[in-house]
Amino acid sequence: MKILVLNAGSSSQKSCLYELNDVLPDRPLQPLWEAQIDWTHQQGIAELKVKTAKGDRLEEEFTSDSRKAAISRMLETLWRGKTQIINDLKEIDIVGHRVVHGGQDYQQSTLISPDVKEAIARLSLFAPVHNPANLEGIEALEKILPNVPQVAVFDTAFHAQLPPAAFVYPGPYEWLENGIRRYGFHGISHQYCARRAAQLLNRDLTDLRLISCHLGNGCSLAAIRGGVSVDTTMGFTPVEGLMMGSRSGSIDPGIIIHLLRRSDLTSEKLDNILNRNSGLKGISGVSSDMRQIGDAIAQGNERAQLALDIYIHRLRAGIGAMLASLGGLDALIFTAGVGENSPVVRGAACEAFGFIGLKLDGEKNQHSPVDEDIATVDSAARVLVIHTQEDWEIARECWKLYSHL
User: Where are the catalytic residues (predicted)?
Assistant: First the structure.
């Protein structure tokens, strides 16, 4: 079975092709083909990078004002040119899409139908950056592969079993009736990391209490008990929770009221401030990238140091909140760009939890660990660095659905 995965961002498009047999493997397979389109560097120019499991590579730039046209060009490299790995697109059996927001109605991966597409479009109100891009990818594939089933794998689905105390906001009850509630995000990553943690620990997932720290440009924590998300930091939108690369995370809502009363701010300007010019970027004035923050700190930049200090303070507070929701901890997981690559962040986060017996092995922490336990032997809880593989998790969901068609 050949499974095509599309993972659309606001300014990028990732895709890969997996081949699975009748038995779903425990460990991620290497994709036969991987491609990425990036629109961030030049207006109207798409940068395409493709690589195959055999080692063939392609890099090119082309004019693109249409995501659908760009996806078509990307998929051509599957069956034409030096990165060809299939003879015909008809060899693809099923297509899986990451869809950021599934709302209250879609609490598991779902075969795409006109009703599902309508819901994804409607939920763009809650995820205006991502859901429209997800929908464009779906519609592009409908034209290219009209008879191939497509699956929506929702980022919110993993958090569908949050208890009401965790997902209801303490505003007027009418908010809840109008769909204003905590949804949580990064669910595909948290789900993958929870299962991978159980494998690494040689434990049954249903017996584990885990805190998953997805720390990338966007950041969220999930408290996972028995494989189920029982608490998380992102909420109605991906702005809530931890300090992030360019997002503020949680702030006093009174600040928004104060600014609206005393300035000419519009909702669009506020959105730009909170999503694109806050967080590490807003405080440091340097960058949203933790690596550049580190470089600036090394050069004595005090604002960069302040940005890191706030980031760590809020990360520790978030982990503490998740710990309280779980009532104990078997393993703390670090994943995504910062989580996987910043020993400084991991070390500072863990240092605060020595009082519960959490102990980090400093040497292991420094050595770019991948899918590894970096806690000391006598630590009261394990500390895992896991390379998140959202595309593989999407492929697994497709395999499970396809097996029941």
Answer: 155 (proton donor/acceptor)
Q: Which residues contact 294 (CB under 8 A, 6 or more apart)?
A: 308, 342, 344
What integer is the mean pLDDT of 266-275?
Answer: 91
Among candidates 215, 94, 96, 98, which has minimal Cα distance to 157? 98
Mean pLDDT across the stretch 183-198?
96
Closest CA to 4 of 153, 224, 219: 153
Distances (CA, A) of 20 to 4, 24, 31, 395: 11, 7, 10, 9
Are the beta carbons of 159 and 100 closer than 8 angstroms?
A: no
Give the separation between CA 15 and CA 28, rounded to whole angstroms.
16
pLDDT of residue 60: 92
Binding residues for substrate, by number, are 98
DSSP states of 157-176: GGGTT--HHHHS-SS-HHHH
Tokens describing residue 357: 């017996």
Asked if residue 23 has pLDDT above 90, the reply is no
Nearest to 166 by CA among 249, 107, 229, 252: 229
pLDDT of residue 68: 81
The SS3 assignment for 315 reads: helix
What does 45-109 look like in DSSP terms, one character per residue? Answer: EEEEEEEETTS-EEEEEEE-S-HHHHHHHHHHHHHSSTT---S-GGG--EEEEEES--TTT--S-
Tell me phi and psi for residue 316, to 5 degrees. -60, -45
- Known binding-site residues for ATP equal 14, 214-218, 289-291, 337-341
DSSP assignment of 193-258, as one string?
Answer: HHHHHHHHHT--GGG-EEEEEEESSSEEEEEEETTEEEEES--SSTTSSS--SS---S--HHHHHH
At 91 the pLDDT is: 92
The single residue of 155, 231, 373, 391 carrying the catalytic annotation is: 155
Strand partners of residue 286: none
CA distance 141 to 37: 16
- Contacts of residue 75, Cβ cutoff 8 Å, sequence gap at least 6: 15, 89, 144
Active site residue 22: no
Residue 265 pLDDT exceeds 70: yes
Residues annotated within a binding site: 7, 14, 98, 214-218, 289-291, 337-341, 390
Model confidence at 227: pLDDT above 90: yes
CA trace torsion 350, 232, 131, 42 (10° rounding): -20
Residue 9, both tokens: 């961002």
